[in-house]
Amino acid sequence: GDASTSAARNGWKAIFEPAIGTPKGSRGGVAILARNFLGLTRPTGACTTVWAGRAIAAVLQAPGCRPTLCVSTYLETGVGMSETNCKILAAVGQRVADDECKCFCVGGDFNVPLDAMASFARTVQGQLVVPPTVRGTMRTKDGGSTLDYFVVEQNLAKGIAKVHTLEHQRLKPHVPVQLT
Question: Is the N-terminal amide bond of 43 cis, ω within 30° of 0?
């Protein structure tokens, strides 16, 4: 079945943006998943042409907690902080700044090294949250790189108990990263 059916079968609600092709022919997409007992809605005006296929937003509602704006990103591969990647991050940053939740978690396949994302984290007054992995989150036969991580609102970051890779759920060549 499709990804939505698979997610539901495993106890998750999911919001997806259609996968897009890359110049190398591979496909990538963005999604946000939350356990079934949590509220997950797509806010109005959440997707613009700037982020089409490259980012998606949802509001997560956990019992007893304030709403959290969640954004999943997939920046262009192999181009670093290109003009397009900068525009996507600027649009995501603006969405974070405009959101009434004031609590956010931006995660995904950033396709740029951590030091390149430090400026974005400062701009949105967030904190980089990175899994402790020696092998990286994107692995090839030649090695690995840490390209999948989070930028989280500073107060929310204080409540994170664990950030780790889900080794048993490989999405080749990436390894999913989870916050708890």
Answer: no
pLDDT digits (tens, 9 = 90+) for 73-103: 888 888 888 898 899 899 889 888 887 778 9
- CA dist 128 and 130 (Å) reads 6
Q: Which residues contact 134 (CB under 8 A, 6 or more apart)?
A: none
The span from the first CA to the last CA of the chain, in angstroms, equals 28
Mean pLDDT of 45-73: 81
Q: Count CB-CB contacts under 10 A for residue 93.
A: 17
Q: Which long-range contacts (CB under 8 A, 24 or more apart) does 124-128 make?
A: 124/93, 124/96, 124/97, 124/151, 124/153, 125/153, 125/154, 126/96, 126/151, 126/152, 126/153, 126/154, 126/157, 127/151, 127/152, 127/153, 127/154, 127/157
How confident is the prediction for the chain on average, in pLDDT? 82
38 band by pLDDT with thresholds 50, 70 and 90: very high
